[in-house]
Design brief:
By secondary structure, the protein is an alpha+beta fold. It has 2 helices and 5 strands. It is elongated.
Length: 95
C-alpha cells in the first residue's frame, strides 16, 4: 500500500488560568490540556498517532509541523492566546 499524506489542523488555546488546551476537529476524541506546554507537546506525536490508528485505521509513519512546535510555543507566549497549526501526517491505511 502506498504512503499518503493527510493534513490535520490543531487548535491551541491558552486560557486566563494559565492552562493550555489543544483540540482538533480532524481527530475525533482528541483533546489535550495542561499547565505545561512542553509536556503537552512531548506527548503530541504519540497521542495523534494512536488516535489516527484507532479512529481512522491510519498508521502514521512520519509527522511534521507547520509551523514548528517551537514557533507554536513562542506564539502562545505572546499576547494572542490562540493559534492554529497544521500537522502533516505520512502513513498508510491499516490492512
Amino acid at each position: 500500500m502506498a504512503t499518503q499524506e493527510i493534513r490535520v489542523d490543531l487548535t491551541y488555546e491558552r486560557h486566563a488560568d494559565g492552562r493550555y488546551y489543544v483540540t482538533s476537529k480532524d481527530i475525533p476524541g482528541f483533546r489535550m490540556a495542561g499547565s505545561d506546554i512542553d509536556v503537552i507537546q512531548a506527548d503530541l506525536n504519540e497521542v495523534v498517532s494512536d488516535l489516527m490508528r484507532l479512529n481512522a485505521d491510519f498508521v502514521v509513519e512520519e509527522m511534521h509541523w507547520v509551523p514548528s512546535l517551537e514557533e507554536v510555543k513562542k506564539h502562545l507566549q505572546k499576547p494572542g492566546p490562540e493559534g492554529r497549526v497544521t500537522y502533516i501526517l505520512s502513513g498508510k491505511l491499516a490492512a
